[in-house]
Amino acid sequence: MTAQIIDGKQVAADMRAELKAEVAELAKKGIVPGLAVVLVGEDPASKSYVTAKERACEDMGIYSDDNRLAADTSQEELMALIEKLNKDPKINGILVQLPLPDGLNEAEVLLAIDPVKDVDGFHPVNVGKMVVGEKAFLPCTPHGILQLLMRSNVTIKGAEVVIVGRSNIVGKPLANMLIQKNPTGNATVTVCHTRTKDLSYHTKRADILIAAAGRPKTVTADMVKEGVVVIDVGVNRVEDATKKKGYRLVGDVDFEAVKEKASLITPVPGGVGPMTITMLLYNTVESAKRAAGIDEH
Ligand code: NAP
User: Fold this and answer.
1) Measured in angstroms, how far is the CA atom of residue 74 from the centroid of ligand 1?
2) pTM over 0.85
3) 31-115 falls under which CATH superfamily?
4) 97 part of the active site
5) Could you name the CATH architecture of 140-273?
6) 271 in Cβ contact with 262 (< 8 Å)
């Protein structure tokens, strides 16, 4: 079997087109969703993520409030900015680009964001709501993965899902979403990590395998069963002298070999990555609708 490729760029483009139409409808009612992005320091990767988020907002008709602060910004200055954004009615979502420079207290900053504007879904209030199955902002990467599965018509209900990785931004929230007793949940989920005794025992049982370990070739062809659906979250740089930059990006899965056994698989790049910013835009639009008293769910 050779897998069908799940085209994350296409799914993201479809979702963005739907959102753009929704934003245009909201604009007719005088509602313009607003996202504040806070970047502290000069980290090149963070700068390029932030620029991509701002461009995506612009393209969508979402108001983007750009806050770029010097690396020596104090905790007090940053907290004061968050407070100001919490009160600003033009702002529906606040995103603080992580990691923050050394010396700044990340947990304190994230906790200061008003949960109704926490479009990253990292605030403990939103995490708690998600766990008990209440309406919450879902964290963007796992929510994007859920959308990829749903829009590829993968049956989640009753499936054996194995997640490799238990981080707070991917593995743990995704496991929580997939065990919910709701139409997009009802899976049987196993979460693996570096203390898992026999990783391949678990991965071989998976109907749906999610790799979020941050290490190339964590999943090889001998570790999966025929017909598995594979979602590769990993983004890893490997040296490649043929590339101008001297490296290329690969996921956590040995793509070329695993695609010969899988039924569906996401590539890296072009799989999960494009979904993450899309879900941030989705949450910002949701937040604007809630603030305006429009609640369809
Ligand atoms: P993380 O915080 O480093 O967590 C990695 C997890 O994988 C940990 O739970 C770790 O176990 C586990 N792990 C690592 N090596 C393993 C192995 N050999 N066997 C079993 N488990 C192993 O990483 P993250 O933030 O979740 O990100 C994971 C990957 O996804 C990274 O490559 C990241 O760049 C990528 N990512 C991509 C997107 C996107 O939008 N495309 C978004 C987020 C993350 P322990 O807990 O025991 O250490």
Assistant:
1) 30
2) yes
3) Leucine Dehydrogenase, chain A, domain 1 (3.40.50.10860)
4) yes
5) 3-Layer(aba) Sandwich (3.40)
6) no
